[in-house]
Amino acid sequence: MKNPWKFINPSLLSISIVASAINFAQAAEVVLVSGAVGKDIEVLKEVVKPWEKSTGNKLTVFPMPASTTDQFGQYRLWLAAGNADIDVYQTDVIWAPQLANNFVDLTPYTRDIVDQHFPSIIESQTTNGKLIALPIFTDAPALFYRKDLLKKYNKTVPNTWEELTETAKYIQTKEREAGNPDMWGFVWQGNAYEGLTCDALEWVKSFGGGQIVEADGTISINNPKAVEALKMAKSWIGDISPAGVLAYQEEDARGVWQTGNAVFMRNWPYAYALGNSEESAIKDKFGAAPLPSGTSPNKSAATLGGWNVAVSKYSKHKEASISLVKYLASEEVQKYRALHSSNLPTIISLYDDKDIKEQQPIIAQWKDVFLHAVPRPSAPTKIKYNEVSSKFFSAVHSTLAGSGSAEENLELLEYELETLKGNNW
Amino acid sequence: MFKKHILTTPEVSSLQRQKLRAAFWFLAPMLLVLFCVAAWPLLRSIYFSFTNTSLTNLYGGEWVGFKNYLTWKTFSSGRTIYSGTLADPAWWNAVWNTVRFAVVSVSLETIIGLMVALVLNAEFKGRGLVRAAILIPWAIPTIVSAKMWAWMFNDQFGIINDMLLSVGLIDHKIAWTANIDTAMLSVLIVDIWKTTPFMALLCLAGLQMIPRDMYESAKIDGVHPIKVFFQVTLPLVKPALMVAVIFRTLDALRMFDLVYVLTPNSKATKTMSIISRENLIEFDKFAYGSAQSTLLFAIIALFVALYIWLGKLDLSGEKS
């Protein structure tokens, strides 16, 4: 902020000082960082316009790479350096315990609104009784399927992974024979990054193999069911999934899917709205269902994702930032996001909203998916979560890429996690 | 007589002293800058590597000695467990990756660079244009070219697979960056593509220093061109080549950006810089990561020392 009064006649100085002080208090420029996935940034810029108008503040959005791992590295560096340039951070659901010390405790400002949200999500953002971040949308992945192809080959939406493998293989073969050599059965996220932890956790959990580290801190990953789950995923590579899936993140998988070259895709609900956009090759040709279950029926698992906004402790515009954060988490904005980017609201009442039910039927359907949602072990492993996740996705990635068997890699992973844990997490 | 007089009078040595003092004051700002941006961070990270500092507690680290490097514990059963960077297989995997990458990339870049330089050194029409054009890969920022190549290497819609398929060199699409066997190859291809022009330029500078009459006399004597290359060109271009190789080796050993964009987290391509950043920032093991970057510094220093000693490299330029 420049000092506008410097150039004004001294007799007007005192008035100008007061004026500029008021001006300063009213119109802060708030800087928010957020990863750029799909149309997140566009929606954000659109959605804050009423807030900017009513408060006179201005929002600057600072886009970051789509990979959550990359974002986290950068944010941690900024926060460790006490960076005052960034006021508001859009944070992943798993980050709260690791970054807690750097964010403003939102509890006193949100007493009247926290009850609107899912209690489990508020809990995930609470560390040592402090509310670190306010949720703006939640996430649980879906199995996207091509309605037209299933109908063409007279198949149903698969309920188990086994059915999925069969159906995918069948349609892929038939479609290739029919002259589409680029058709694949199933695309997902297999790159060695946080996303693979989500995907693999779903396989393992749905096979009854636990959730890597249990809520009480025991390391459970080395078990026959987890081995079975990974072997299944390994069998997909090069068969129903392209070998390149081992380098795919969300947007790569969506690239193959949205150009019409995949029968199934595992992805987050944001891909629903994008798949139905005007330029999409599969507009109105697909549906979404809960992920398939493992060996026993009705045991589908979906990794809980979701994004939140937190105010930096080092911000110079805390008041404006807190008002922004509350606005972004409000019913009004969550509804807008639900309608425009099929983001799942964290406000319970929105699941019964008439407009949302009509325009984004996937969302009403998703209320049930939360019943199966499985959290990543970020709470029990605390500050070591990133390393746990990295060791897990590396072990899974090695298995999928054929370097070592599932048994060997999980055994090694268990040993590494034990060492990392030491006496306690 | 006059000269001798000047050289021996005390006034002149005082002038010399004055000159030296002036030189020092001219250099002082640069030395200060170098201390701030090079020496201080280096010493600081060496210090951190002997503490238990973490990113959440940057200023409260306590001295722990060599714990981050190597420590061991013997149980009553007699079993000894080693821990620390030097006992970390992930670290040694990264060292091996980096060294392998450095050796292969620098050798190929040197050979190809020299070949390109020989072509550019010849007289032909439009030489200036070609010289400028060949530098383009070097001028593109690494992040941009890495991203560009990542798309070209994409298994489904990448142009490389498309081209190889249409000429029939491969029969199925290859997942270049995802496959453990081809990940390092992809990184090498991009690096060689990017850095060969730099090598070529340094070699070209060396080639242009060679007097033309050497070649003329060789020609008059009827020496075979291949013999001319090995007997005349190579020995004369060697000093320039050695300097170019050492630059590139240092660069290759601290390799980070290309891998970070092209094949992040792939075990097959993780380099020392990548793994130390991972520990420093992502895993909140700041001291452990500092120990790794200190080791990286030591390894690079070792390589340079070895290289200078083996090549009897004359960096001061006094002999030539």
TrEMBL record, chain A:
Family in the record: Belongs to the bacterial solute-binding protein 1 family.
Domain of life of the source: Bacteria
Keyword field contains Transport: yes
Pfam families documented for this protein: SBP_bac_1
Leader sequence residues: 1-27
Subcellular location: Periplasm
Protein name stated in the entry: Carbohydrate ABC transporter substrate-binding protein, CUT1 family
InterPro entries for this protein: Bact_solute-bd_prot1, SBP
Organism in which the protein naturally occurs: Marinomonas polaris DSM 16579
Key words of the record: Signal, Transport
An annotated GO cellular component: periplasmic space
Automatic annotation (TrEMBL), chain B:
Keyword Transmembrane helix: yes
A cellular component annotation (GO) from this entry: plasma membrane
InterPro entries for the chain: MetI-like (IPR000515), MetI-like_sf (IPR035906)
Domain (ABC transmembrane type-1) ranges: 95-307
Pfam family membership, one: BPD_transp_1
Bilayer topology: Multi-pass membrane protein
Cellular localisation: Cell membrane
Protein keywords: Cell membrane, Membrane, Transmembrane, Transmembrane helix, Transport
Biological process per Gene Ontology, one example term: transmembrane transport
Keyword Protein biosynthesis included in the entry's annotation: no
Transmembrane segments: 20-43, 99-120, 132-153, 183-207, 228-247, 286-310
Family designation: Belongs to the binding-protein-dependent transport system permease family.
PANTHER family, A to Z: BLR7065 PROTEIN (PTHR43005), INTEGRAL MEMBRANE SUGAR TRANSPORT PROTEIN (PTHR43005:SF2)
Identification of the protein by name: Carbohydrate ABC transporter membrane protein 1, CUT1 family
Species whose genome carries this gene: Marinomonas polaris DSM 16579
